[in-house]
What does this fold into?
Amino acid sequence: MTFDLTATALKMAVWLGLLINVAPVMLWVERRACALIQDRPGPNRLGPFGLFQGIADAVKFMFKETFAPTGADKPLYYLAPILAVVPGLTTYVVIPFGPDITIRGRQVSLIVSSADTGVLLLLALASLGVYSLVLAGYSSNNKFSLMGSIRASAQMISYELALTLSVVAVLLPVGSLRLADVVAYQQGFWFAGVPRWNILPQCIGFVVFVIASFAETNRLPFDLPEAESELVAGHLTEYGGMRWAIFFMGEYMSMAALVALGATLYLGGWSLGWVDVSSIGAWLAGLPVFSALGPGICAALVALASLGFKIALGMAFFVWVRWTMPRFRYDQLMRLGWKVLLPLSIVNLILVAALSVGGRL
It folds into this structure.
């Protein structure tokens, strides 16, 4: 019992350690990437390469004066930022970050909660983000905030349909809702030694998932919820200081969560494709530097590094798109969601179902 509790606590600590550092790292990456794309230096005064800029921002937010608008619904006003970080802090519990390993004769599954309804639980937790936007706009006693929250909720609900259908298409040939089974399904190779990842047979679903992820996280070119030129700052108009910062912490956490889900569904998750993670772990355990860790923990570290690298690439793609593409108009955004992505996701689901019945997947 003590061993299981300790293992679960350590697995949660791994994810929480990564999540807490997502926002400050991404703030620096956003600024440096923006400067690189726009041919300017970016932050370069605070620390080497401006690495301490995020610390300065955190200090500013913590000491900045906070306020609540007159007539605001105070309980809901204070609750909205908390709900913004709930999806990012909870969806990781069903994402596997390594193979089952053996420590002191006990088998440990590298997933916080190995629930049989893993994907359903993840989607349910991720959908809670819309409540944060709605409550922020409603409780602020500001008509522009309310209009922004209504528009944001319509956007997120519209794109959740296409995103969910693309996820369901991945689960069909697997025959399980557990993400660990999805990763196991992608082991092995297609023709000519190509890793058996779902991105090849389900490239349509992958494109739908990526586009819907941008809309779900309110990132450019889908950042209509806080389009300053149209709605002041949308649902964030009456927020400042640390409460405002918590909203953006939640946004970066949700980005990382969706990227991790996409990597698990389409890119083999923690697996390396051509190289067996357990073999690398055994090789590392034979080196004097890592001999004290053992092959199991070494394999876990390699798998975590593999998944982390895929997440980093996905987050870099989010940043590149933000500073490359212009914002959609709202009618274009809704038309893309209902008339393009939703029909495309349905067609993809039908194709995958037909191939699965025919034994082609």
